[in-house]
What does this fold into?
Amino acid sequence: MTDWAALDHLLRTDPLDAGCGRAMELLDVYAELLRQDGDVARARYPQVAAHVRACGPCAEDLEGLLQAMEQTN
Amino acid sequence: MATPEIRSIGSVTYRGPGGADERAGPDIDQMDADTAYWLRSLTASGRERDTALVRLHALLLRIARSEARRRSPQFGVTGPELDDLAHQAAADALLAITTKLGQFRGDSRFTTWAYKFVVFEVGAKINRHHWQRPGVAMDGQAWERLPARFGMQPEAQLDWRDLVAGVRQAVEQELTERQRRVFVAIMVGGMPLDVLAAQIGANRNAVYKTMFDARRKIRAALVADGLIKESTSDQTWGRAT
It folds into this structure.
């Protein structure tokens, strides 16, 4: 992503966005589904998918959780 | 017939073999063996529970260390300080997990649910204790740095000057005081959302919602002013024609 596209990405809002609270609540369930099948995860939890696309801190937490699962499974 | 073994964790009842409590939450027998082990042992008493707590802490510490290392390049924290942070995160996560065990519904493996807490703790601690930058002022210099933060090229200077001026005007005219403070700190100052949340005594969700509303208002103002196009994909910046 370059120049204006990055700023555009940050200004855009998705009405489906679940917000941090709901996304954090479902992050473990979403992460497990994501490892099995990303398309299914995004289809089943579109609000969480929309949120982690827009929220840096929650996306970072999701990445950390996925790596933790990878290490111990 | 054996007497069903029933364990209560908070408001949730876990059924042992032969249990038939239809009111209860997750059925421990329907869970994977690892999850069932953790739930049985953490709700036991005496040595069984103590042993499980020690094992869980060791697991959390392992995850905390790797997560702290993964995030450390962004913050420049290394060595004993990073390890200390991992220890604190593991201890706090263990406390959160034991306190909230009754909220575990069995929708994921127990370990995935538990790792979530330690990942949250590491992120929060790194953000709050190690983000060391001066306070964000809403001044001209901060705004001048905005294009550079997004990697904008000098040859696009004229375009981005118009747009930055438009964003700044929208911030000043369209946002509430709280929205303005949050937007400027995060978007202009580059402050992590969690750091700002800690500074203003709010949670991540509240700050995100404030930022969400600010983004929506600013984008709408830029579209209304013809500075950006409304299209939902392949958005191009610059004055719309």
Remarks:
- The radius of gyration of chain A is 13 Å.
- The helical segments of chain A are 3-11, 19-36, 38-44, 46-54, 56-72.
- The longest helix of chain A spans residues 19-36.
